[in-house]
User: Fold these one by one.
Assistant:
Number 1:
Amino acid sequence: MKMTFIGATHEVTGSCTYIEACGKKFLVDFGMQQGEDMFENVQVPTAPGNIDYVLLTHAHIDHSGMLPLLYAGGFSGEIHSTVATSHLCSVMLRDSAHIQEFEAEWRNRKGQRRGEDNYEPLYTMDDAIGAIELFVPHNYDEEFELCEGIKVSFRDAGHLLGSSSIIITITEDGVTKKIVFSGDIGNSMQPLIRDPQYIDSADYVVMESTYGNRVHDRPTDYVTALTAIIQKTFDRGGSVIIPSFAVGRTQEMLYFLRQIKEQGLIKGHDEFPVYVDSPLANEATDIFINNRESCYDEEALGFVRRGINPIAFENLIRTVTSDDSRAINDDVRPKVIISASGMCEAGRIKHHLKHNLWKPENTILFVGYQASNTLGRGLIEGARKVKLFGETVRVAAEIKQLPGISGHADVNGLLDWAKAIKGVQKFFINHGDAASADSFAQRLREELGIDTYAPYSGAEFDIASGEITIDAEPMPIPKKTLNTANMSVAYSDLVAAADRLSRMIKLSDGRANADMRKLTEAINRLCEEWQLD
């Protein structure tokens, strides 16, 4: 019995753990690395064709996104998940493949003009469909035999529709050990889905630490705050455009909007339309509805039992085709448009921004986290002009942000979940950046007095003996450096100036917003003068 840590070790994405037991080889999650990559990951120590199973905690791409690549490499085993996760993956993996193929096509068009070699997508739509066909769905809390000696069940983790913690009981050579993988543990009091369900006992726990050193702010009264923004915008003749993540956040917004409409909170605009303009969001919404009995919380189920769909209402218009999407901007009524992507980096939202950003009567409302260097983050930070489809667009609309209802438990929620599990011999802390993982490991040691270990990629653990057999060292990814050997003096001076500008930007945090906006405008003017995107 051996466990090897592959991904999401001192990092937040790319979850993957490899286990050998009872003559079988299997993975728990096989996720895509997203955002900045700080550490090198070791390879899974066997070929894809030798892997017998994958156990999947939930559908988010940082946990499931590499499954099509695994299939492309020769994997033909079973992928076990909850029913709702299998349904979500059927649309999310196809969407991911579409993005991979689209990016490859775009890069190849550019590369051909420069005489570059063809760029191959990470995987194709056929690979995604092949992986989807390998899913074996299960209900929550129904234990099944994965193979002789290994039993598995899924417990609701309260993070996303269908999300789970995985309970694995392994018996080999007379030794039985119970291992729990937390998956991503949800925040309490989220709309629609249930709170995280606790687990009573385990020998070893592999646990996430996304917010292992942070406490969430007090929850926003979403209905009141959202009502005020919509009312103010509609009264001045504008529309509210909401960039939203297609799975999870969009359905939450529909839940709140149904309540606003039911209670008649918007005055003078009773029949206002709400458009959901994202094929992925619309498919995901159907999956939420179809899995209501197994995944909704009691409040949402109460609506269902009274014959009310908690994420549907009058004048909800779900667009599918590109023609339907374009027609939205011909609707002159005050309206709400919910569209993906949530950070405005791709998808139909960019078209809606192009049509609506320059109109002062409109509001662009952000309801989720905006990562650095994204269009969404730039708008929140006060950009006056943005580039959309090669065209400069003036930002005149009001830019607002409602703090999202985090899908992750904060440090207090993580501690409560951990404290409920009795008999734990060792906690393994993953799925958090270095500061968060190490901080949470220390907190667990201090409060529970239990052995705790935050592994780096490549660490190995003997499940039977309880010993760490390989204590892997961190492998930071080398930062790219410029080859200055053949630079001209002028170019060397330009690089030095760029470094100086970069240092100045980093030191600007904390300055007055007006000063930072002036600097932003100066840099944007320079880029426009030199015809840079």
Number 2:
Amino acid sequence: MSSKLENLPRWNLGDLYCGPQDTALENDLVLADKLAGDFQSVYQNNLAQLDAKKFGSAINDYEAISELLQKAISYGQLLFTVNMDDGDITRFYQTLQERITDISTKTLFFTLEINRLSDEKIESLMAGGGDAARFRPWINEIRLFKSHQLSDELEMYIHEKSVSGKTAWVRLFEETFSEMRFDVDGEKLAQSDVLNLLSDKDGAKRKSAALAFGKTLSENIRLLALITNTLAKEKEIDDRWRKYARPVSSRNLANQVEDEVVDALVSSVSASYENLSHRYYKLKSKWFGCDALDYWDRNAPLPFDDAALFSWDDAKNTVLSAYEAFSPEIAKIADRFFENNWIDAAPDEGKDAGAYSHPVVPSAHPYILMNFHGKSRDVMTLAHELGHGVHQVLAAKQGTLMSDTPVTTAETASVFGEMLTFRSMVDGTSDPLKKRVLLAGKVEDMLNTVVRQVAFHEFETVVHAERKSGELSPERLSEIWLDVQSSSLGPAIKLDSSYGSFWSYIPHFVHTPFYVYAYAFGDCLVNSLYDVYLTNPDGFQKKYIEMLSSGGTMRHAELLAPFGLDAANPDFWKRGLGVVSGFIDQLEEMEAGAD
């Protein structure tokens, strides 16, 4: 290991609990159970008789119970994701999930009964004073699902059975990948390490890593196909009973975005494949001296990229200085993640291979997980997750029920943080070759965020549509995958059968179906937002912080209105995609100048 990658931070979960046996955790669960039982006794079958003051009190009580349960389950999730191959912690997490499911079953009636109230009753409660009116955004979000709600008995059955249904299949997926090891030239590597090799400078290592990854996925493909088929079927049954028009509709509703807006995004991106990814990878192939790149070279460092590894301090200072130049207030919040050990950055066996910022609960603080290998992409990942973390800190004042942001706008601060960091790095160098490397890296990140994620969305769309007619074979899943990947990446990327199993490691397909378009939504949104910042910076930071601080209290139309943006307008997506296209234009001009 390079000395630059030593002593990477591990988070301290002591702000939540001191360990699985901490009496504070047990006390919180016992208290939550008692409060939930009391809540059920007082309010079940009684909401229609409440006045505005008592209704507001009921929501406050529900929020307090939710906070206790979310704090406990968040601790379990965080502990599990860095110890996924530890049997004791796995059992602890499963038992914790089951206990919390049992407790939350007692309060499940509350949102169901809210949806049975008439619109007139809801309005009278909102107009009656007290805390009820403050929770209007949360109530409006709950009532979005009113027409898709089942009977109380069915909802309770589904809720209780989840620990042996979807949750169990997700756990199987996670534990399967936690235990997988990939034989790369005789060395057994975990997922994070083998994926890191796909962007290694050594082409032979990239090829070996890709083939080893595909081989091990193929050896487990029947199990992974079974997980995918089972969860897709469960979703189809749930969607049918709840009368959702399309597989994506429930996700759109949860994201508080209209089907038509998502359709406009997907169609705009897919129509731009040729102008974006096809054009860029043709250019990258030229840099590598070939007509087309093997798929394992898609994220390869450029041949003229001699960039050294970043140390953790380098990455920290790069991101914080970029944040500081934009907003000292935001930089101050971001710095707390480093000072207080809220980040776990060291790659490790048994650790989740991805990256995230977990909001936990407003009374605590977020935690960031990532796997830092010292590459420029890792710096961007740090900037991305810190953006999420800052967003979550600012939104915490909205409380447990209203601090979460719909995923369509949840990616705003993260992608904006990446853009600030990228611009800072470009402005900080006068070397034309380094500028070209940075620009190409940014384009690749944007293609991975926009083109790749929309292709993922198209894969899910086909899979869920075909699953209605029966189980899909591993071969058919691979066929769909290769088809959408070929279409999105273009002729300058060579795909073969060894790439056919790569669909099976994408966690979003398992954890959160149809989540993936949110990344493209966020990237295009930020491109448009950043364009507004460049052209009209006066007062932008204040409006930006106010937007982040609103949490889940406003929909995308309300959030974007102060900036003069409208996601329902097709020009909005063209503006965002135009930023990516413009960067590729610059690279082509640089290439022409170098010839």
Number 3:
Amino acid sequence: MDQEENILGKEKIRKLLIKFSIPSIISLLVNSLYNIVDQIFIGRGVGYLGNGATNVVFPLVAVALAFSLMIGDGTSALLSLKLGEKKKEEAEKGVTTGIILSIIISVVLCLISLLFLPQLLKLFGCTDVLREYALNYGYIIAIGLPFMMVGISLNSIIRADGTPKFAMASMVTGAILNTILDPILIFVFNMGVQGAAIATIFSQFVTLVMNALYVRKFKTIQINKNNFRFKPRTAAKIASLGISSFITQMSFVLVMSVENNLLGKYGADSKFGPEIPITVLGIVMKISQILNSIIIGLSSGAQPILGYNYGARKFDRVKKTLKIVLLTSVTISTIAFILFQTIPDKLILIFGSGDSNYMEFACLAFRIYLMLCIVNGIQIPSGIFFQAIGKSIKSAILSISRQVLFLVPAIVILGSLFGIMGVLYAGPVADGLAFIISGILILFELKNLGKKTIKSEALIDDTSTNNILSEHTVITVSREYGSGGRYVARLVADKLGIKFYDKDLIKLTAEETGLSEEYIEENEQKRDATSTLDSVVYNGLSNADELFVKESEMIKEVANKESCVIVGRCADFILKDYSNVLKIFVYSNEEDKIERATKFYGMEKEKAKKEIKRIDKLRANHYKYYTGRDWKEYSNYDICINSDIFGVEKAADIICKMAMTGDYKEKDNAELKTSEPVKI
């Protein structure tokens, strides 16, 4: 890992972007082209009604894709986390659970689709004219959902295993096969939309088989019959890690469903009818997705470069990387804008021809709906930039702003006011508003980049090492904010003459990763609700995940090396399999915590109350996310102390006595699982 981080901090940025972005762009383009190829051959072999049918079935495919990405990305992140923690067995259980979960959900979704397809199609905006085509296409696609979903989930896991080229090869193979089979089944065998659906699911089956054969060849783990078991708690963890991908994809389903329904409604009141708008705008959105795939791929490739250099406070490299990404993205989106405005009739003819109304609406759709596609070259990279630097709130705002906050309301409001033309103008309105928000946020961030200096406390703790313990002992101290737990831990270390690790761990992690101490101190041990919307970065890990893995390594290293006291950072969980660990939780009532915060931290009473609540919530979320346990569950600890009943000195004496006598070791494993810890 050190070598890779040195590259991120030193290598030429353009060279790094090529290395990281090209595979991402290809992968995203292959996904986009899968559906576009079907549209091209269906349009030419069946007509625009066939394309309209695939557009109303596509939200079902998008739902399946949302679950696939959630499971695949979540399992990939879990695999990377557990490998980073050196827990190979748990990594294996995570992967097998992810595979089983993918199979279960795909089969359930398949059955639901087969049983309720007519109702689902109505929900997605299907008209009476399109219904027969949509049912013929949709039933076959529904049968193939398990092939698609398990194959995509495996693809993500294979990438996390360190074989992105194989993952890309399996996807490209399926896409090429689909391109070959489509014209054969549609034109030679005259199978229409059913032929296109069969070509799609057969191609996805081939991708699935290739990925399934790889499972026995994993590089980092070993999968066999013995460890192929489903773990419900692990499945829940996978879902939480992959929820970002799920939310992003489901927002697209929402947009398509609303759009199709209103296009059908207002189209019926126009000369175009309901089917032409549904068909044309579906094609327009898929063509624009090619543009977005290139920009997203480029920006995703820049994520590790931006994140690493921001953390390392190399702000000149951050600005240079962002500048290159923005200029490249705007150039690409400008070229696309010119094409959309000048030759929309040529673009729509790729997907087959139609009558004069069809061609007229196609030109309107390209020119109006994609009028401001240029700004996508700024809005998309801006969102990914904030993901990379750990600004989860800003990232979340930009991730959902265009699709959910602006586009859906704009479609509803403008559609009710101006009919079918209002739906088209909703596109540039949403793009423009999203651009304004992203522009303001990115300019403000760049203006203040590097100006904010956090006074880091990440200094070597001056603790004596005249160890009076007779045995190697590690003491972990978790504490509520304002409880005095850190001071108690420091007193314990001083009294026992052992090393005290708190801010020291920040320094060690900074030395290991190259990230700055200020960045680590600002981002560690904190997890808010918006963190779930952050996409994974490289190797399946987000910024917070990467810090957790590195700090876990540091904690194990110091625990193996010497007797010590370790404060926070889920150390009790990280060292749960160690026999020589005394686990402490320090708490206090609210009034005493507020009093301590006002006295020692210089806060006003009301501010102290809010800050205590905020910090404790962030710590609890962080602990729950990485351990699956409740932070204040007393059975996690050997002793829980109310620091204000005894005072910090007496509390430290109690802990020292337990450490010196080894009383905490007297319980056997069976008792530890059922008995209450010492709570005083």
